Amino acid sequence: MSKKRAVVSLGHEALGDTTGAQRDAVRVTAIALADLVEADYQLTITHSNGPQVSMIHKAMTQLRRVYIDYTPAPMCVCSAMSQGYVGYDIQNALRSELFSRGISKPVSTILTQVTVDPYDEAFYEPTKVIGRYMAKEDAETEIKKGNYVREYPGKGYRRVIAAPKPIDIVEIEAIRTLADADQVVIACGGGGIPVIEQQHVLKGASAVIEKDSIAGKLAADLGCDELIILTGVDCVYRNYGTEEQSPISVMTLEEAVEAVAGGEFEAGTMLPKIEAAIAYLSKVRAGKVLITSMAKVKEAVRGRAGTVITV
């Protein structure tokens, strides 16, 4: 297949954070994705799910509080729900946008599991905040269950879960088969459903996986030509947020590694994206990473915007 194969990673801006906002946001997102399809890309799409999985977790927890016969939904189930819900909106919006342009192409969502190491250090120092604010009594109940909580003075307590590194994408061959057939695939949503393999049985883990981390692995596993990370800024900046801020249009893999080692990028914002680029380019030496915003992606694929990272 001569098309350029790319994994596209969608950030929070592409989805919004409520059901209504998401329906509106994906219509705009679908335009940018359809532009890439028209530019002769075969797309495999992954996306964030922070607000969505948090909303689902809150709803399922409240359901258990109101109806005591219901079993609380574990994080792995909430993650699966968010994958289906977000994927449903993206695939319908993109399918409609493609049809409006005279393009008949299947768009499919694959519910994707990702294995993690039960001894990953992240399980001992969880950092991802999830769910509603709780009273002290509810927080103590969570602690007794073995869960972590964090206190927010004047507001209450919130649960904190781990963000381990991904090991293997369980459904990678199914994703590859659809990609090879030139279909648009939505997979590994929200980083994938984290699972632990125990004697060939997959068991859900109380965790989330960083979506940029899985995007880099997905692009590497598929041997894609490009990893396109769409985020809230038009490009990567040096000294971001300071008077010395300056855009980076081109960066080598070596320069990216040095910048990370020097603490150039902020954790939780640009750092995971650069780390994903490094992971991908370390495996696919002929690959290219493009980091830009939704608004600039059409220009960026033509070399007129964004940040390009290569070996």
Number of discrete helical segments: 9
Helix content: 25-40%
**Radius of gyration computed on alpha carbons:** 20 Å
The chain-level mean pLDDT equals: 93
Strand order of the largest sheet: 3-9-2-1-12-16-17-15
| Main beta sheet strand tally, sense and closure | 8 strands, mixed
The number of E-state strands comes to: 17
Q: DSSP strand (E) fraction?
A: 25-35%
Shape: globular
How far apart the termini lie comes to 24 Å
Given as residue ranges, the uncertain stretches (5+ residues, pLDDT < 50) are none
Give the structural class: alpha/beta
State the order of secondary-structure elements, H for helix, E for strand.
EHEHHEEEHEEEHEEEHEEEEHHEHE
Give the key terms:
four-stranded mixed beta sheet; 311 residues
Walk me through what this model shows.
Strand 13 and strand 14 form a beta hairpin. Helix 1 (19-38) packs across helix 3 (75-100) and helix 2 (50-66) crosses helix 3 (75-100). The protein is globular, with a radius of gyration of 20 Å. The protein has helices spanning 19-38, 50-66, 75-100, 136-144, 172-180, 211-222, 253-261, 271-283, 297-300, and strands at residues 4-10, 41-47, 107-109, 113-116, 128-134, 148-152, 156-161, 166-169, 184-186, 193-198, 201-204, 226-231, 236-238, 246-248, 250-252, 288-293, 307-310. The strands form 4 sheets. The chain has an 8-stranded mixed sheet with strand order 3-9-2-1-12-16-17-15, with helices on both faces. The chain has 9 helices and 17 strands. It has 311 residues and is α/β, with parallel strands linked by helices.
